[in-house]
Description:
The protein is mainly alpha-helical. It has two domains: 31-70; 71-88 and 96-267, Orthogonal Bundle (Penicillin binding protein transpeptidase fold). The chain has twelve helices and two strands, in the order ααααβαααααβααα. It has helices spanning 30-39, 47-59, 61-70, 82-87, 103-113, 125-136, 147-156, 163-179, 182-192, 202-210, 219-228, 242-261; strands at 92-93, 199-200. The mean pLDDT is 87.
Amino acid sequence: MSFDDQEPGVAPLEPAPPLFESPSPDPLPRSHRLHTFWYGDGTRIPWLRRILTILFVLFVPIPIVFLLIFRFVPIPFTPEMIIPLVKGEGVHNHWVAHSDIAPALTRAVIASEDNDFCTHHGFDWKDIHAALKEHARGKRLRGASTISQETARTIFLFPVRSWVRKGAEAYFTVLIEFFWPKERILTAYLNLVDWGHGNFGAEAASQAYFHKSASQLSTTQAARLAIILADPDVWKAARPGPYVAARTGTILARMNEVTNDGLDWCVKP
């Protein structure tokens, strides 16, 4: 029966919908959408969008990929190494495995720089709170950076003092603590930290100041290297002045505490 032959009052039959509907074509190709995102609609350049995109790429995917790769591969260069190059001093750096660095140097930097390295998650809140209380009483605001923070600063940032840098340092510290184990953080720190006069890392410093490999450092030499990290271009490890000589005894005593209290448990083989 055709639609014209249906009885009066009966609704006409509608044709059945097709079993498969073809997808509607994309109104704009992906390349066109990307072009519009970056260049805008042609009336004006979207500078704010560009800046935010660049910042996102610089602070999220690039650092994460960097940390994933260099968790296993030696880091060849840091922003801090540019400074001695500009001064004409040259850069001396040779990456060595953590097992090729004298254990005394590990104990020395923990004793001198960060007693709670194995237990905190990047920030020593007790030390930060103490530094702020001292500043409130009129004292100069001292640093309260951990080894993790110093590693983040060394790898990603220039050594300039500003609140913007401190904010970026805190962000990179969180990433480092999340993607790297403690042993890798300390290994990177000992291989990349500035030990003065264009010497970066324990091996370069050991060769420059004591004419021996980092694996052959004595306990006293390790303590002196840890001490001069605060001002490596002025203080001397090989021929220590009054301050470094006096401070050496303090650090040696603290190194014994590190051993006795197991404060280096997270980096022991």
